[in-house]
Amino acid sequence: QVQLVESGGGLAQPGGSLTLSCAASGFTFSRYAMGWARQAPGKGVERLGGVDSDESRTYVHASVKGRFTISRDNAKSTVYLQMNSLKPEDSALYYCAKLRSAYYSDYPEEVENWGQGTPVTVSS
Hints:
The chain is an all-beta fold. It has strands at residues 3-7, 10-12, 18-25, 34-39, 45-51, 58-60, 68-73, 78-83, 92-99, 111-114, 118-122.
C-alpha cells in the first residue's frame, strides 16, 4: 500500500534553514502530484503547496512564498520541502501528501494519503 515517510525535522534557530524529505512507495510516484502541509499545536492543517507529477511545476502558498521551496526527484521517489529564513511561527508538525491527480491543487478532497509527519521546532 501507499507509504509516505517524512524525515529531516528537528530544532532550528530563527533565520535558519531545514530541508524535509518525504520518501514515497507503494505506487507509481511519477504519475501523481505531491504536497506539503503543517499543523501547529492548537491550530488546523495549513496547506503549503505542492508539485505536479512533472518535476518542473511547483506551487507555494502565499503564507510561505519566498521562504519555502517544494521540489521532487522522480528517480528517487522523494519530494522535498526546503525551508529558509525560519521563524518561530513555523514550528509545527509537517506532513507530505499524495494527491489523487497528476496536478496539484489545495482542495482537501484531492488528498488521498498523508504521511505520519515530522516535527519542526524553531526557537532560540
